[in-house]
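Example 3.2
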Amino acid sequence: RALLREELRVGLGAGLRSLRSWSGLGQGPGSGPGRLRWRGPGPGRLRWRGPGRLRWRGPGRLRWRRRLEHPVLVTSVPKSGTNLLMNMVSVLPGAHRGGDASLAAELHEPAERLAYIQRRLEGIEPGAFFTGHFPFHEEIARWVRGQGFRHLFIYRDPRDYCVSVCHYVMRDAPRRHAYHELFSGFGSDSERLMKVISGYGEGRLRYRMGVDSIPNIRVHFEAYLGWLDREDTWAVRYEDLIAPDGGLAPTAPGRIRDMLAFLGLPESEALVRRVISEGMAPGRSRTFRKGGSGGWRSELSERHVEAFKRVAGDLLERLGYGW
């Protein structure tokens, strides 16, 4: 046993130095040098306590497992796949749930919005993931970066957003949505869709969201577009993950690898499969209705399409969509 321990001590010394160099162990704020511990007697266990995990499970297997070394922020345009992306993050090694600041979307002064976000996102630490809907503002972006977040942002075809939000607000649920009364007052599904496209109240002209106002589709999406131009934000389209029939999009595995690389995790096939099988299961989302994409084609009338083109202008082109 003494000889085995000495051989492991000498052999792993060089190995750990290589691992530190490769993975950044012991570097950066708050990472610390970690601890190497022997749990015996006999073949026993060798464990590394640090930002990642190094395990020796005797008598012959040495294993290294990378974990999330940063807090993660998952944001979106509302009804664009927030829960999908959150669930994908939740199955990553070291991930654990933090707070939610989705109501930031209903606060219209940037300082008030930032103060709310700061109150809601407590316990920021490596591996914690948080969610929200944050209309873009430079002060908020600066704060997010200053907290060390790895920021993931998801958006979808604005036409599908219009359909999704109407179904979501009007769904038959024990607890009605806060906007249920407002949407009910519009009288019909057709008119509800028209209000989401054209706006209602102050939202016809500027970003205002609440129980008496709906921003028109162009104003609504433009409030979030600033996140797409930032190097410190990984943005993904819902349609790059989910196919029109609700299954896995052909581009999804590649986008998942991109996400893992952005988060500092290995792009292993095993981890990609885990994200797909466990993180993208529809039943995990409490707001899941139908899934898929392109449903607007069967729900928007010619009148709705004409209104959308008039209000949205070049919005679809800017987001990478077409007619």
